[in-house]
Amino acid sequence: MMNKPNVAIMGATGAVGAELLELLEERNFPLNSLKLLASARSAGKKINFRGEDITVEELTHDCFEGVDIVLASAGGSLSKEYAPSAVKAGAVVVDNTSHYRMDPEVPLVVPEINPEDIKWNKGIIANPNCSTILMVLALWPLHKKFGVKRTVCSTYQAASGAGALAMQELEQETAAKLQGEDFENTVINQPYAFNLFPHNSPMKENGYVEEELKMMNETSKIFHEDSKVTATCVRVPIMRAHSESLNIEFDNAYTIEEAYEVLRSAPGVEVFENREENLWATPLDVSGKDPVYVGRLRRDVTLDNGLELWLVGDQVRKGAALNAVQIAELLLEG
Amino acid sequence: MMNKPNVAIMGATGAVGAELLELLEERNFPLNSLKLLASARSAGKKINFRGEDITVEELTHDCFEGVDIVLASAGGSLSKEYAPSAVKAGAVVVDNTSHYRMDPEVPLVVPEINPEDIKWNKGIIANPNCSTILMVLALWPLHKKFGVKRTVCSTYQAASGAGALAMQELEQETAAKLQGEDFENTVINQPYAFNLFPHNSPMKENGYVEEELKMMNETSKIFHEDSKVTATCVRVPIMRAHSESLNIEFDNAYTIEEAYEVLRSAPGVEVFENREENLWATPLDVSGKDPVYVGRLRRDVTLDNGLELWLVGDQVRKGAALNAVQIAELLLEG
């Protein structure tokens, strides 16, 4: 991989696309050129990057000529259709959609956990689900130290996970509700203002929804072992950061102080708490921030080696765009 | 207890007080007289009940003369101070605050579960915490059938749990936020509009907050056995219904169909789900409704006898006022 690659962003006009642009700029990502790709509808639009306007181009099968890295965030069906063309053109695709994540030919990477998996890529590297990334950043260092036997997770997921339009709709619907006006939801399929609902991804035969199965299955793939995770995913009327309540059972004895120590020195993780005033990380605190924030560590009184933990991270950032950019940075080093 | 008692409501002007009035009216509760008690600040205010205006009286130690049943919902310190005076005057106090709940001299009652405990009251009967009531209504019938070994609960609690002023503040703060205006929180001690936070009740030495310990300890008292419950309580920007994600481990083997059957025939519980369209109970669906609604039953893939369950109930209604009125109804029967 060259030092200054030609990069393309697929889905440049979406919520994650915007964040990818911001991160490339902020992290001073070395670039020879940057191509912005979107649907025909958005083609021609201009987006400012490092002080220059870049014209959005239409995503086609021929548009990857000369591109070294594709950051793909335009939806699973478009990744399925276009990633092979990008690979054929010689690019490595960092795919932020769910399409290739469980493909045994495709590594699934969180740079703080399994950066070595990047090496066996065959042109596509998958970025895990947002809720998975946030959870495993805290789970992995604890697992290495104490052995995680089982994890029960309940999520509090923001509108951003459903895209920029869902965020807009939540704002508009809330404004309407406060005015006592009717509102017809078109992005989210049920009332969302001052409401919450079990995650609306498709439900499988076993009763879990896809979002939950992603957290459960992707964790095993990232950890290279059969991880026991069960999840309940819930969408809450929050703009862009996801929260998670984790109940973790360890194989081995531990102390709360040791668990704090492990998390304090874990890459990508920050302990965020103000115990004196009983204040802990909230979505508004961490929106726009890089790390996943943890706190409220306490011994589960119902188990010998149980830990309760609160976790909040920016879904658009480390949960999506940042992890993808970190993978791209590893590609440059590799 | 006479057939048509003289009833007094302590805290008649609060959120639960208003719901108590509505329920007495709606359930055609037999009354000889109704006294509305509140602080000096609210005394003199008129509240309509069954077509008549009742003047709110000031809560004093002498105001319970001739009262048979007091429905107390004015806060723990006022219950502590005034309940003994009410008992001395011959009344039975149904206390909706936390003050007497764990007192071994005071029964803690959910009428669907342990109505017999009313019989040994010495003048005070405690109404459990709202999150506890909602949880145990589903847990108890499952426990009787399959033996509940351990429960992990994460809550999604509405503003109503913090009172009518918190609900108003959430509305005002959300309106301000949508206008891009600054807002100073005075009821809730942190930003709440489009935000959520771990429950702000006082934190104990072991790291659990009081709200969580209530769910854990009260369950054991209501079930008359040592129940293993661990909870994480979270306040979400919802108006008045609480949701709970429950992960339950049974002693015995079960099938999902049997679990549904148990819950379908459980008093106070309704199965609410539309599996075809992937729609489940939400706070807006159940606000103002009596039952606790359950759904999304699925086998926890990480345990032999594990069950995942989604639960939503109106915090002000069954979580507080309705349970208290049901206790009063049992007193009339008894």
Automatic annotation (TrEMBL), chains A, B:
Report the active site residues: 130, 242
Q: Where does phosphate bind?
A: 101
Q: Which SUPFAM superfamilies match?
A: Glyceraldehyde-3-phosphate dehydrogenase-like, C-terminal domain, NAD(P)-binding Rossmann-fold domains
**Pfam families listed in its UniProt record:** Semialdhyde_dh (PF01118), Semialdhyde_dhC (PF02774)
Name the enzyme's class.
oxidoreductase
According to its UniProt entry, the protein's GO biological process terms are:
'de novo' L-methionine biosynthetic process; diaminopimelate biosynthetic process; isoleucine biosynthetic process; lysine biosynthetic process via diaminopimelate; threonine biosynthetic process
Q: Where does NADP(+) bind?
A: 13-16, 41-42, 160-161, 315
Residue span(s) of domain Semialdehyde dehydrogenase NAD-binding? 6-121
Give the binding site residues for substrate: 157, 210, 235
The superkingdom listed in its UniProt entry is Bacteria
Q: How does it assemble?
A: Homodimer.
Q: What does this protein do?
A: Catalyzes the NADPH-dependent formation of L-aspartate-semialdehyde (L-ASA) by the reductive dephosphorylation of L-aspartyl-4-phosphate.
**Protein family according to the UniProt entry:** Belongs to the aspartate-semialdehyde dehydrogenase family.
Protein name (database record): Aspartate-semialdehyde dehydrogenase
Name the species this protein comes from: Lentisphaera araneosa HTCC2155
